[in-house]
């Protein structure tokens, strides 16, 4: 039987019985620290497992993260709920909805937690029905307005069966945690086991991790090897998205070492670089309590992303301030790098004032601080903000802004599979909404403009130098400065697939025929005369091209095949070359074991100055082949 894995987290006010309820449900006490036992409150994250069976027989494993409810430990609370599939909101029957209940509920909303189950605890000492009615009113007009509410008591066990049923029914109706082939493990705990090494734990998202995989610790950029994988204390060959995961990483150290991992770091499966600037859509809840200040541009606040907390300057891009019930585009300039993906959710807090201020969604995980792109970037962000879930919008906005991008790099930091991206690219190309050229994707208008510019340069080359076989690609590249070699190569390949032809390092229209202008007839005749005087021992190329006209004539003679260029400074008349090649082929045909350069030189009655470049040229053309100190026929 396949077991489906999901991770849920508690949320709620201090002393509302979150840990007691987890222990009653699972038999595991999530309070693991001595200080928690001594003070009787949850300080850090605790963990437990709850196996459940749905009515149709499907098996589920719920990894439960128990979070602290005290306002001093909201940072730890957010670290526990950053990657969950379901929130378990706890409200005590003897207290009702309290300030931390509201803050935790807003945090879950900001993080886009899609599902919620509410447990009314301590119903043996309070009015559970009245509090349930109060909670229902608090949930009204929220995305989880119809969340199940179950009255329970950890002391008596009342309602626990109903709560298990509500949990399993909720996850049974949920899709599996997505696997888009880009695993990330936000680290929430690091410890060392004697004889085993460093262990990091977290909630795995985005992809699977196998034992013996290679991965990377970010933002340090340290390559790691996964020695073993565990989930809830059991060795497993592979961990899937939505599972509580522990990785044994032998290359990682503990303590303050530069190779140490800590909460807030991330294990990733591919070489994706972290950044210190991201562009986002910030949102402030309309139910924010009075007295919470508006967010003003250039304010420095704490950004909670995954399990990390990072100080950041908030630069609002389209307004000067952000108040209750409003959304604004913003740039977060972080004090240290994080690895964010498009569509990632985060929370913004003023830790000093113990206030949760806003939440947001990442629109550009590789933003730039360049001011000259401000208007263009605003359009990019505004379009993405309208439908942040759309892969089509993500692709088209990227190409509209960046114009050209390698398909392998497109939406690398996004929750989309490579196969999904390729499929949408092909469809959009068929709809002529973008251009695909080999491994390059391009904005349609930008591609057409570049292609037309390249054609114009080739035609200009034909007009200015009709004696050449085409425009040298080095000249084309220099004229198209600012475009990468990959982009120019894609344009050349596209042209060659149509009405153009490439010969070595030149490109030309198929209809182009090299023609020698009448003004160069004399220079051409003089070159041929000098080469024919001593055909097997001609002068150097430099000697026969003393001026610009001679250089132009020489390029035409080489392109038309009347002169053969052996190397940069040695040319032969075509007739002499063919005769020498014939002599060499005939001579080697009689030498079963091959002949030395000296023997061939004597046969040709020429000099080493001519012979060695000639033999090397014939080697390149696969006429002859070198075998030690001898030459043999290649065929």
Task: Explain what the structure shows.
By secondary structure, this protein is of the alpha+beta class. The two termini are 64 Å apart.
What attributes characterize this protein structure?
elongated, 635 residues, 32% helix, single chain, eight-stranded antiparallel sheet
Number of helices: 18
Beta-strand content bin: 25-35%
The helix-and-strand class reads alpha+beta
Q: What is the tally of beta strands?
A: 35
The end-to-end span amounts to 64 Å
Largest sheet: 8 strands, antiparallel
What is the radius of gyration computed over CA atoms, rounded to a whole number of angstroms?
Answer: 36 Å
Average pLDDT figure: 91
The low-confidence runs, each spanning 5 or more residues with pLDDT under 50, are none
Helix fraction, binned, reads: 25-40%
**How is the largest sheet built, in terms of strand order?**
11-10-16-7-8-15-12-13
Shape: elongated
Topology at a glance:
Blueprint: E1 3-12, H1 18-26, H2 34-39, E2 46-53, E3 59-66, H3 74-81, E4 86-92, H4 99-110, E5 116-121, H5 128-139, E6 149-151, H6 160-172, E7 184-193, E8 197-203, E9 209-210, E10 214-218, E11 222-225, E12 228-231, E13 234-236, E14 238-239, E15 244-248, E16 266-268, E17 275-283, E18 295-296, E19 299-305, E20 308-316, E21 321-322, E22 327-338, E23 345-350, E24 355-364, H7 374-386, H8 391-402, E25 404-406, H9 418-430, E26 435-437, E27 440-442, H10 444-464, E28 471-472, H11 473-479, H12 485-496, E29 500-503, E30 506-509, H13 521-533, H14 541-544, H15 548-559, E31 563-567, E32 570-573, H16 574-589, E33 595-596, H17 597-604, H18 608-620, E34 624-627, E35 630-633
Parallel strand pairs: 1-3, 1-4, 4-5, 5-6
Antiparallel strand pairs: 2-3, 7-8, 7-16, 8-15, 9-14, 10-11, 10-16, 12-13, 12-15, 17-22, 17-24, 18-21, 19-20, 19-23, 20-22, 23-24, 25-27, 26-27, 28-30, 29-30, 31-32, 33-35, 34-35
Helix pairs in contact: 7-8, 13-15, 17-18
